Amino acid sequence: MRIAALLLFWLLAPLAASAQTAASSVPQTPVPVYGFEVVRVYPHDPAAFTQGLVFRDGELLESTGRYPSTVRRVRLEDGVVLQRRELDEDYFGEGLTAVGDRVLTLTWKGGKGFIWDPETLEPEGEFAYAGEGWGLTHDTTRLILSDGTAALRFLDPVTLQETGRVPVTLQGRPVSRINELEWIEGEVFANLWQTDYIVRINPDTGAITGIIDLTELMPDRSGLDPTDAVLNGIAWDPEGRRLFVTGKNWPKLFEIRLTGPR
Predict the structure, then answer these.
(1) In whole angstroms, how large is the CA radius of gyration of the chain?
(2) Strand partners for 76
(3) For residues 70 and 84, what is the distance between their CA atoms, to the nearest angstrom?
(4) C-alpha distance across the termini of the chain, in Å
(5) DSSP codes, 199-231
(6) Which one of 22, 67, 220, 238 has the largest count of C-beta atoms within 10 Å of its C-beta?
């Protein structure tokens, strides 16, 4: 309950409203809060401003922001970048997903996405979308896109046109800053930008059904920018049932196991 209340305070009182007002806004029905155990720690390129992360064929695919932004293949065991492609300096890279024989990446304010060959990272095409691009994942029939607002948007994987959207809510209240996304066993896991929380979202209703508290995942962040070097990056290995998380410019990538709820 304490973590859920703190998260609600952050979401509902961003302008530092009084604690009394925030407390009165906290609903009585608790949202499950999950902890974690670290299974293994891997090296991660500290120069990678991580925007999207995917596990594919024993490797990681990662997209990074800033300039130049990149899309890259990364060896899990030692964090070595096996291959990388740079975006044009006009584009700030964002989320990434791998769908069949394509890798798709977003840009922040460019209104343009890119299609890459997953084996060679050769560019294979582009697509357009309205608004900003933040996170990207997919289920069995749709692409799922976040744009920083309190919504998930659905795109047709063939035409890449928007087919619908759902509001993201916590106890009926809208939740914005939905960032990197990962589809895990029927749910969307999403980073909340500038927090150490991952939320679990019902894709049919948009309701947040659980909160993962990762505040103690990497407590020593000395030397990292407290504003930009935030938790971001979720990858799921469905065969090994392994969950990986990292952050922007973090020197480590963590395999974690969820515990709880509490």
Answers:
(1) 18
(2) none
(3) 6
(4) 8
(5) EEE-TTT-BEEEEEE-TTSS---TTS-TTTS-E
(6) 22
Bond before 174 cis per omega within 30 degrees? no
- Say what the alpha-carbon torsion angle 249, 201, 243, 134 is, to the nearest 10 degrees: -30
Q: What is the pTM of this model?
A: 0.90
pLDDT digits (tens, 9 = 90+) for 7-35: 655 554 442 232 233 334 544 578 999 99
Neighbours of 169 (CB within 10 A): 17
Q: What's the one-letter identity of residue 115? A: I
Tell me the longest C-alpha to C-alpha distance in the chain.
55
| 203-231 pLDDT, tens digit each | 999 999 999 999 999 998 889 998 999 99
CB contact at 8 A, 165 and 129: no
Q: Find the helix or strand (DSSP H, E) in which 4 lies.
A: helix 2-12
In the chain, % of residues over pLDDT 70: 89
Q: Amino acid identity, residue 137?
A: T
Tokens representing 143 are 């692409």
Question: How crowded is the C-beta side of 32, counted as CA atoms within 13 Å?
Answer: 11
Strand duo 151-155 + 162-167: pairing? antiparallel
